[in-house]
Amino acid sequence: MEETSGEPASAGRRRWWTLLAVSTAQLLVVLDGTIVNIALPSAQRALDMSDASRQWAITAYALAFGGLLLIGGRVSGALGHRRAFRVGLLGFAAASALGGAATSAELLFAARALQGVFAALLAPAGLSLLTITFTDPRERGRAFGVFAAVGAAGSALGLVAGGLLTEYASWRWCLYINVPLALLAVGGTVLVPGDRPVRDGGRLDVAGALLSAGGFAALVYAFNEAEPHGWASARVLALLVGGALVLAAFAAVEARAPHPLLPLRVLAHRARGAAFAAITLMFVAMFGFYLFMSYYTQTVLGYSPVEAGLTLIINAVAALVGSTFVAGKLHGRVPPAALIVPGLLAAAAGMFLLTWLTADSAHILPLYLAPALVLTGLGLGCVMPPTASLATADMRWHEIGAASAAYNAAQQLGAALGTALLNTVAASAAASYLARPGHPTPTAATVHGYTTALTVAFGILLGAACVVALLTLARRARGTGTPPREGTEHEHAEEAAPLT
Fold first, then answer.
1. Is 334 helix (H, G, I), strand (E, B) or coil?
2. In which domain, by residue range, is 219 found?
3. Cα–Cα 20 to 30 A to 366, which of 124, 196, 325, 409?
């Protein structure tokens, strides 16, 4: 590694060790959002789960992770991001080992919830470490490109790994695999530069912590319940309304709190708000897309779980190319919007291509699936690095953890909403199509449901691109969008991190 700005080469190497450790942790967090999905039928049989309760193997992780992210961001700052990172890794490894050794459904659900608790500490700590470690614009672009590539490819890799481990080893290895990966990342933290705990963040905002956890958990649970019960069910409506009211109360408390858990200026900043909107809507569309690709390849094309997962490798490789060789190379050389808007449009084009699928389409893999997987992967890879960078750019030192947590929370809400919303759209469209005169086949109805949902996903991505473009045109913000150094305040950060 060459010396940068007169610093020793050893310091440069230590920064790249930080990237390796943080990327490994990011892989763990994202992987566990999908890896258990493929293994769930085998786990259900082994632990004698009921059909009604099996969803908790997925929901317990999502609720704990999404509900506690903002608290995790604050705890990360209070402990010091490197120390919090280590605690998160060790706790995640222990929870994974407990889940893999589970002898009952209840123990598995508890272990998955515990994984979510430590993931809520691990994710903001990792992004915060990356933000404060890489300050040179060129290195920062490369680092965030690699970090985003892992995040973008992690969900697809989770489906691949889940299929392989379940078929050739055991469903338990979908959890055990986290242990060596976490310990590897812990070993890497020995070379991670240290940081000091935040001492000026004030006392914990208890009211904000309780309201944020309750509000986010209610929304995530509502999205999960919408799939089996429908959006019009009393339970789902109560959770949605309750979650929205609790989050409104959270915003009111944060506006008046002397040391808020989430300073509202983090979201009010125009460029940062656009980044949060872009990543949330991207995840809404992409997680529905992953769900349909898994269902379509297995139920319509007859692929095995392993074959279906391997098909998604195309998407993972494209995301890797987009984040490292496009976004990573161009970071700091072009405005963030010049990456975010084309990325959203590329993903939208991939979704639109699949809306032309029918039950009778020929040459599906080369003409439809492969191009769509490439376009969506490239789009995701171009969107994640600039949005991750903008989420923490020009933040006060003691607020980096909160911004990192908010960015991860946006992804979690988007993923939960996308899976529930688009699956509901697909099911309703399929049922309506099947009721048409002419006796359509169940396969034709299923494909129609998928294409209808993907049309909605296309519209969401197109709308996201328009929102970011409008914010870009509305005001040219000033500043460089570089991360703060320790001890700086950036009182006027609302004018930094330009989109243009």
1. strand
2. 206-260
3. 325
